Amino acid sequence: MHFKDKVVWITGASSGIGAELAKQLAKLGAKLVLTARSADKLAEVKKSCHTDCSVLPADLYQSNSIKALTKQAVSIYGQVDVVIHSAGISQRSLATETDMKVYRELMEINFFTAVAITRYLLPHFEERNTGHIVALSSMAGLMGFPMRTGYAAAKHAVKGYFETLQTELLNTNIHTTIVSPGRINTPISMSALTKDGTPHSQMDDGQLNGIPVDTCAKKILDGVTKNKKHIVIATGERLLWWFWWFIPNLYYRIAHKKGMQ
Ligand SMILES: NC(=O)c1ccc[n+]([C@@H]2O[C@H](COP(=O)([O-])OP(=O)(O)OC[C@H]3O[C@@H](n4cnc5c(N)ncnc54)[C@H](OP(=O)(O)O)[C@@H]3O)[C@@H](O)[C@H]2O)c1
Fold this sequence. Notes:
The protein is an alpha/beta fold. It has one domain (7-236): Rossmann fold (3-Layer(aba) Sandwich). The protein has helices at 16-27, 39-47, 66-77, 100-128, 149-168, 188-191, 205-208, 213-225, 236-246, 248-259, and strands spanning 7-11, 31-35, 53-55, 82-85, 131-136, 174-181, 230-233. Strands 3-2-1-4-5-6-7 form a 7-stranded parallel β-sheet, sandwiched between helices. Helix 1 links the parallel strand 1 and strand 2. Helix 1 packs across helix 8 (213-225) and helix 4 packs parallel to helix 5. The termini are far apart. The structure holds NADP nicotinamide-adenine-dinucleotide phosphate. NADP nicotinamide-adenine-dinucleotide phosphate (NAP) binds at residues 12-18, 36-38, 41, 59-61, 86-90, 109, 136, 138, 181, 183-184, 186-188, 191, 207, 210.
């Protein structure tokens, strides 16, 4: 799989991993469709992409309009070859104090949006007998971490849905890559939802000291090029995950100590 002249639709393209993927894909000669809420930020990303690039702003929380949005995305260049589900929102609140509306928003943006877009794109991929889906899960989609009950649940759901899709589409030319990053240096903690749905509005140390976003995007594109089914991009979280497998009591102790500070 190569990206030259491929049409790549990226959600969450106004910031962080999605924006960096757009810039790197532009250099590889892909044609881009960029989606997020902020039209201004998308226009900035477009400016730095010297390639065919269209912005398609949308609030993905409005899941009833996703079918029409998918049609629009396909109609821009007449096809979509690759979709990257990077739109996402994190959480910073304890289970004991989080409003139900926060859980619903976390599931909607992180999970249902990706499922709906995939659902409406699959007939297009089947018709053309080609397509690649890239789903951003998280290390929080492989194990729990404090203050992120809803986020971890949504990312586990992403992993479960797309891994199952991989088993269903195994002998087809439609591929899926699941990405599980640890902490990456993006502003994701700024928009993370607190207990009542207001944004956390802080750049957490974990984010600031995270893996550089260009390294993360490069690893994602390398993995997709190789048709990898699952890409883990993490350092400290990888060790924690090892403990989760082999010394679970230690995993619980470390996760509690680190996450409850
Ligand atoms: N950074 C990390 O440490 C990390 C680790 C593991 C997994 N991930 C996952 O990687 C993906 C990208 O995260 P990131 O770090 O790049 O975060 P980010 O910089 O905060 O970007 C999130 C993107 O999602 C978009 N978005 C949020 N709500 C939306 C909505 N209602 N409708 C449309 N777009 C919406 C945002 O755009 P607008 O605000 O303009 O709508 C933005 O473009 C997410 O799925 C995240 O969960 C990140």
